[in-house]
Amino acid sequence: MRAALAVLMALHAMAHLPGVIVDWRLSAIPELPYRTSVLGGRLSLGDAGIRTMGALWLLAAAGFSLAAIAGGLGRPVWIPVALAAAGLSLLLSILAAPESRIGIAVNLLIIAAILWGRLTGHLV
Asked: Structural domain tally of the chain?
């Protein structure tokens, strides 16, 4: 189970990179337009706020990458790192919805799998 979660987290880390690319205006992605607002356009953050969102997407990607590596190596630190990354990613995904709706589901899956695994003893 730990190995499967490590793979999922590594893939999810890569899925955060378009958020960084678009929010920092490094490249255009037609399916993910540059916006300076979140919550479906309800809250404007401006250019500086969206750049901060990009930095947070990168932080979440780094957290998932670290958790995936630590989990793959069997280091116990992977669980709190994964939960922190998933919490941050979930918040960002909610703010960036609807484009990030798949991310919401993946984050909830990761959190649920870790909590279930800890409760049942499948993750040590």
From this structure: 1
Distance CA 123, CA 43 (A): 39
Which pTM value belongs to this model?
0.94
Q: Which residue has the tokens 């116990």?
A: 76
Distance CA 90, CA 106 (A): 9
Packing angle between helix 78-96 and helix 46-72, nearest 10 degrees?
150
Per-10-residue mean pLDDT of the chain, 124 residues long, equals: 94 97 95 93 96 98 98 95 98 95 97 96 82
- Residue pair 13/121 in contact by the 8 Å Cβ criterion: no
H helix intervals, the chain: 2-15, 17-23, 46-72, 78-96, 101-120
* Residue-number span of the structural domain to which 35 is assigned: 2-120
Closest CA to 3 of 59, 47, 67: 67
| CA 67 – CA 91 distance, rounded (Å) | 18
